[in-house]
Amino acid sequence: MQTKISYKEPRRILHPTSGFLKGYTHSLNPYVGCAFACSYCYVRQMPIALFHGQEWGTWVEVKQGAEMRLRKEIQKAKQKGPVTIFMSSSTDPYQPVEHQAQITRSLLEVLVENRPDFLFVQTRSPLVTRDIDLFSKIKDRIRISITIETDLESVRKIFTPAAPPLASRLRALQKTADHGLPVQAALAPVLPFSERFPEILANIVNRVCLDDYFMGDGSGGKRTERLNIKKRYEENGMEEWYGPGIHQKALELLRKEFSDHQILISQEGFLP
Ligand code: SF4
């Protein structure tokens, strides 16, 4: 799918948080829109996507000059108290266009100079490893969370065909962990996976976050229902992996390799 790229200077880059992100003072989105176009993405139901006029996943707006705004805004925010940042809540900070635009990297450079009290980096792109040098400079106040919902490429292609392949995400987890950075694998939302998946993850990370549509879409599963995701499970004979109890099933499987304190459930896996 071709992604339409546009460029715009943001009026503001640090946004006060609420709801799911209430443990943070600010969210930081280097882009608007997302080329990964996940079928279950809850942002599809939010005004940012609904009022754009083009289908979610087909467009990305680059926040040009974002680092200049961030420099001013973080200095001001730090004068008022602790600053905890979630990057990103309504896009992936490592869009394919980030290879050239380097907006996320420029924001990280500002954050290295003006350290927040905590920075959570949420992505599903292996491009995140490009910035390990910067993460290492603030490693005592950062967590990197890499989404890997399954170990089955056939399943990924059903739900997130435009997202990076799973093998590249496993390598990114490994590389990040090898550098001693705090990293977690986010099975969020958990998708049907093989019996080997917990063992594969346990060989790389010591922390996983488990989430499903019913805990994690911000509406008890209603947003996901409106996206008609259940149909994808039915069409592919995977109904037993859809429902409010699915995280329990996944939890039992993960417990074979991880202890309870290494498995964080839904929102707790994303807290500062
Ligand atoms: S990567 Fe995140 S923001 Fe982008 S489409 Fe997927 S769930 Fe939505």
Automatic annotation (TrEMBL):
Top-level taxonomic group: Bacteria
UniProt keyword Iron, yes or no: yes
Molecular-function GO terms, alphabetical: catalytic activity; iron-sulfur cluster binding; metal ion binding
Domain spans labelled Radical SAM core: 20-268
Keyword Iron-sulfur applies: yes
Keywords of the record: Iron, Iron-sulfur, Metal-binding
UniProt xrefs under Pfam families: Radical_SAM
Name under which the protein is recorded: Radical SAM protein
Source lineage: Bacteria, Bacillati, Bacillota, Bacilli, Bacillales
